[in-house]
Specification:
Blueprint lengths: L2 E2 L4 H8 L13 E2 L30 E3 L2 E9 L5 E9 L4 E4 L22 E6 L2 E5 L4 E5 L2 E6 L3 E7 L2 E6 L4 E4 L7 E4 L5 E6 L2 E5 L2 E6 L8 E5 L2 E4 L4 E4 L4 E5 L7 E7 L6 E2 L3 E4 L13 E6 L6 E6 L3 E7 L5 E7 L13 E6 L5 E5 L2
Parallel strand pairs: 2-26
Antiparallel strand pairs: 1-15, 3-4, 4-5, 5-6, 7-8, 8-9, 9-10, 11-12, 12-13, 13-14, 15-16, 16-17, 17-18, 19-20, 20-21, 21-22, 23-24, 24-25, 25-26, 27-28, 28-29, 29-30
Length: 361
Amino acid sequence: MRKRAVLSLALAVVLLLFSACGGPQQSSVSEKAPESGGSAAEVRETFVSGNMQKNSPSGNFVSANGKILFTAVLENAEGLAVLQLMEYDPASGLVSTFCKDPTCDHSDKAEHCAAAHASCNLENNGADVFAMGFETLLKLNGDRFEPVLDSGVAGFFHAGDDLYVRTQDASLLLYENGKGTPKTLLEEYAGYWEYLDGDTLYYESGGFNRVQLSAEDPEPEVLLPGAEAITDGTHIYYTGDSGFLYRCSMDGENKELLFEQRVLPASWNYDETYFYFRLFDGDLRGAGSHEIYRMLKSDPAQVEKLAELPDMVYQIYISPIAGELFVIPLTEAKDSSGNKVDNMLYIVSTESGEFRKLEIS
């Protein structure tokens, strides 16, 4: 089974700075005319996508019990900016904190918070939902997250029933069937945004790498030195020194230039059919910052502008609701102490490009 594992907002800010500067050239893309009709509202229960390569250490926007879970930085009752687990109900269109206890401030001091400090690495694995807390691995049990591993966790992913854990002391462990005594696969491992294909692990760490986990003495191989990359298991998509979008085969060969304009790695994502991104001219608020583009993966020459939002596009996520994207905009919202907080999302139809704003509070 293939695992697509990854950006916290803070990490994404760092990663996008590796993109090169330059101005967009609009001649190579087409406009998408809005169409009538909305998108389906069915929540896919076993949703897996490039969302697992879009967070730190991995994962955001997952489905759970007909709702969608994601993380956001909000100001709590004490006036502090706190990363919180949120819940979106497609039926009502409402967003709320996952923990419904009105007396809970959802901070690291809240001992009985239903979210159990779940703050990143959200993952759907079959019908199960997992998350990472403060060095803990959590699993959703009913309406609460409960610990599976209570210490030493720096990141994790599943492949079927097998659990892979990156530890705080930088090793990679395997828990066969998700339990028992772990096996040490790699004694030194600092990867994230993992994708497992058989016994070959692909991951980001100072470039895009792979390693054969079944080898007697596993030696990582750097496929794309220094590159920002994401893979759908068929191709590796990455930015070169120019900031242009490229892709190659899974062995790092057969490189091809896809889009001769600079793109923002923090924004990109994919589904079965399209690769999504926004442009980047060296300024997050520069030309093209409000626009979402998509490329047909089967024919990369086919690029179109899907939507243009009122706010600047920052990150694009594939929604567990078929036919929709979640888009995190770049805003100036801050809490009472001047810390940045998240106050909205956009939901964008992949059919029409139409969008609506989703307030977070």
